[in-house]
Amino acid sequence: MNNRTMLIAATLGCLAGAAFSQTGMHSGYTYSNVTFSPANIFYGNSPGPLVGGMDVFPDGRIAVAEWGLPASVYIIDGLQNGGSAAQVKLFAKGLDNVMGLKIVDSVIYVLEKEGLTQLLDTDGDGVADQYNCINQTFPSNVSMLNLSFDLGFLNNSFLVPLSSDVATGGYDFGSSQQAGTTAFPGRSQMYKVDATGASTPFAGGFRNPNGVTVNGEDIFATDNEGSWMPSSKLIHVRQGKFYGHRTNPPQQFQESNNNAETPPVVWSNFNDATDATGRSWGNPIMLQKGRYRGHFLIPDLVNGEPNKVVRVFVERVGGELQGVLFPFVKSYNNAGVHRIKEGDDGELYLGLLGTNCCWGQRANMIKGFHVLRPNNNVPFEIMAIRSLGQSGFQLEFSKPVGAAGNQAARYTATSWRQVASEAYGGGNRSGFSTLTVSSATVSADGLKVTLQISGLPSAEQLQSQPGRVVKISVNGLSAQDGNALWTQFGAYTLNRYGPGTDYTAVENTTRAVSRDVEAGWKLVAGNGHHFLQFSWDQTTPKNVAVYDMKGEIRFQVNEAKGPRVRLETGKLSRGMYMVRVQEGRKTAARPFMVQ
Question: What CATH number is given to the structural domain containing 427?
């Protein structure tokens, strides 16, 4: 455990403290650079944050955690109405390298380098006054690169992905590049952490899993190129699986799977010249709004890369997920995008933490916060690519294709494999080859083109030689309305031959939280009691129950009316509890601490 100076005066838990250009912004969105009031509130008197973690409240406010030591959490207000200016308030400070922030039942949790911390505002003044330790058992050493990454939440448990034991320069301790060393145990894994703080290893083989999201019951994470990672990738995380990064000594999921890597949903095409994607990915999100609903977006935090945000379409083939990535937001402002979230109206919030190389050089990173708001423009782009089997693929477009759509010469296809090796980024684009597009057939509505492609491996070869990527490029094709193509390529990760079905989530069986109910009440501590304070619909009867972390009801108040309800929590022993409010069929819950 690292020794640190106490940096805050609060109750501390986990801490001791038309034709469109091929570069630029997606034409379906209007871009704004956010300015903040007060100015220069952030670290180093910066006019913008260095975003490590980010999430959105039900009422549209945004919580942002700065990365670094010390790190702070800020609440941003005023963006949900379409403005480019925002009010910002310091909520918490003195934190350590926060990379993950998750809002659960309107309470902020942050993932620091060595632990999970709950931030509570018990007196309702908009500033955290309790920093409660949920867990501080994540193994770490002095290396700056031993990071705990993004934070997920599913079925009342947090999802905590840890980096491998990475030394300065990017190689692992215990690798041949770090002679005489061994890897710190317990790294390179995703953990599940319940409300009591108990942690359980869930899956392994991660290098830098700098992003996690939950869609229904499905868990997804990104990982980044380096040792045993030829390129970045999007992973469908399942319990007990191994995802390719090897440690020395081996971690448990590496051993239990005998080094057999479960393939990702998508490989990036890093080192692919001006089409490169995935130098260093941040968090994925599954869009819930607009024409791209059901597609992933993933940002790239390295400055100057040609594609700053990619879009991923996913299909289910043979019971497993695989997909294709497309350019979405291309280079702009030379800024690396670290975190991305979606708002209620489909706006995209982009948090910057741009870097060219080194996590340790905090002052040299690009800071800022941008918003993309959907407009009425519909660009001409490839919306999806689907596998049709060994014979080829089908491309789906956003607009009917022009007269050249049936010319096979307009399409080119190349293929390679991602083959893991210990060398940093080794095995990237191995066995590169050019395939032959023999025909292109346009559907009656002009929205789909079926390509016959020869040179693809047999189904047996596909299974015995995993890591196959097929890149399809489209050259000089316009829509019937004259628009040029925005997405001129798609890189498809071919784990199995289709046809398949478009991905939809396995639905989450836990309660569906009403956003109105969740945003409409606050829990405030008193001397030997707590108050539930309601800010809306104060006359409708509400049933309130307090549970312990075993799920047992400790007491309840039925048919409560008025602006607040007094809970006699002083009768409870010290620890974590959960309060649930039910109004008709609507329910919401949030945890709290009895001191």
Answer: 2.60.40.1220
Tokens of 238: 């399942």
Half-sphere exposure of 308 (CA within 13 A, CB side): 26
Structure tokens at 55: 């999430």
CA distances from 421 to 65, 176, 418, 438, 492 (A): 35, 12, 10, 35, 22
Q: Left if phi > 0, otherwise alpha if psi is -120 to 50, otherwise beta: which for 333?
A: left
In the three-class reduction of DSSP (H, G, I as helix; E, B as strand; rest coil), residue 403 is classed as helix
> How many CA atoms, within 13 angstroms, populate the side-chain half-sphere of residue 479?
23
DSSP secondary structure code for residue 510 in this structure: S
The total domain count for the chain is: 2
**For residue 249, cis peptide bond before it (omega within 30 degrees of 0):** yes
Distance CA 546, CA 565 (A): 12
CATH code for the domain of 578 = 2.60.40.3080
Q: Name the 3-class secondary structure at 336.
A: coil
Whether the per-residue pLDDT at 69 is higher than 90: the answer is no
pLDDT at position 387 over 80: yes
For residue 354, tell me if it sits in a domain: no
Confidence tier at 22 by pLDDT (50, 70, 90): very low
Dist. CA 160–CA 549, nearest whole Å? 19
Complete edge-to-edge strand list for the sheet that includes strand 266-267: 212-215, 218-223, 233-237, 266-267
**Mean pLDDT value of segment 26-31:** 92
Q: Nearest CA to 15 among 122, 110, 96, 73?
A: 96
List of residues 6+ apart from 384 with CB closer than 8 A: 313, 315, 324, 395, 396, 502
Say whether both 388 and 467 belong to one domain: yes
Is the domain of 496 the same as that of 540?
A: no
Measured distance CA(400)–CA(481) in Å, rounded: 8
How far is Cα 122 from Cα 526, in angstroms, rounded to an integer? 8
Domain that holds residue 392: 382-502
d(CA 239, CA 222): 16
Instruction: Establish if 404 belongs to a structural domain.
Output: yes
**pLDDT tens digits, 143-158:** 777 888 999 999 889 9
- Report how far residue 475's alpha carbon sits from residue 5's, in angstroms, rounded to the nearest whole number: 58
Question: Which of 77-81, 131-135, 164-168, 468-472 has the highest mean predicted lDDT (pLDDT)?
Answer: 468-472
pTM: 0.84
d(CA 349, CA 373): 9
